[in-house]
Structures are given as C-alpha cells and as structure tokens.
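Minutes, project check-in
Item: structure for the 224-residue chain
Input as provided by the requester:
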Amino acid sequence: MAVVISLGGSMVNGTGDPDINFLKKFKSLLKGKEKIGIVVGGGKIARDYVKAASNFSKNQFWGDTLAVYATRLNSALVTRAFAKEACPVVFQDFESAAIASEEYRIVVMGGTIPGITTDTDSVLLAEAMNANRVINISNVDGIYDSDPRKNKNAKMFRKMSFKQLLDLANASDKRAPGTNFVFDVIACKLAARTKMELHFVGGKNIQDLPKAMKGKTHRGTIIK
C-alpha cells in the first residue's frame, strides 16, 4: 500500500522558525511498512517572499517561483527528519519520485512549477505511485462550509463528495501565490477523475494520521 501526504508548510514552519516538535511527532506516527510520498508546502517562508517580491514586480510568476523554492527548503528539512528511511533527494518531478519509492519507503517532494500548488502535486504524485489515498495535513482540522478562522459558526463536513469539494474550491481558489484555500480546483478535478480518496487532518489532531492512512474514520473530513 502507498499513501501520499500533502504536508502544509504551516505545519513545518508557520511562524518563521521550523517546528521541530511537530516534525518529531509527525515522524513517530509514520512507523510501518507503507510506501509514503510527502509533498511539503511553503508556509510562512513562501508568504514572506511572495510579499517581498510584490514590491518589485506585479508579475505573479515571480512570486510563484519564490514560493516553489520555499517548498523545497521545507522539504529538505523533512527529508532530514527521516534521514534513514527517506531518499535524501528532494524530488522535483513525479516520475523520479515514483521510481525512487521502489527503493525507499519515503520520498519527499516540494513544489514543481510556478502556478501549480502542492495540492495538485500531491494528487499527481499519488497517481504516479499508484497510491490508495492522499492525506492533507494543515492548521485547519477539516473542510468547512466557510473559513472557521473568520466565522465561529462555520460547519465542518465529516464526509463529502468530490462535487461538493469542487464547489467549495471554485469559490475560494483565487490562484494567487501565497494564499490559502481549501484544496485547489485542479487538485480537486484530478482527484475526482480517478476517485482518489482524500483525507483532511488538522495538525492539532495529528494523532489521527494513522487512521487516515488506513482509510478509517477520524476527526477530520473524508472525500470519496
């Protein structure tokens, strides 16, 4: 069995300093024999550099490019956390990562190209690895009908269809570098075409990760 984890950059570096305690806990939960692909987001580093770049150019390609570099920096740290189990290379293409997963239990990727989010990269890697499911880990504990950080009455979905997820993504995905949204539109469409099972787990409920990896019910959201 293989699974792909889309690890939000905010979990690795949400304040400007790497979260070593989270990475140790994350590592402790990934014991086993499953093949694992991990795609890491940019977090605060990406947002800071996107903001800085906007002072010099309104062309968002350059903000996207810097965000990709930030994801690779975070990915390199995650690779070190799994030094003896992970391939030491931070992969930039899906085919190479999938091939390496035949030798290593864990492979790690950052972003690939400007304008394509790590959500999309995660689904594509899952397809390349013939994975059973994608698990999204972020600082939000599931999929809500509105932003729970802004609306205290936001309702969380325990289970959703691909269409419901796509409708929410269409409303929130503005394609701007460094922004946050539920799951980007392209990723939703790619997951829907192969019925790739999606699990959303909040960082504060990280102990649920083993359940999500096995496709079991947890405190987050399941799409299938």
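Outcome recorded: The chain has one domain: 2-223.
No further action items on this chain.
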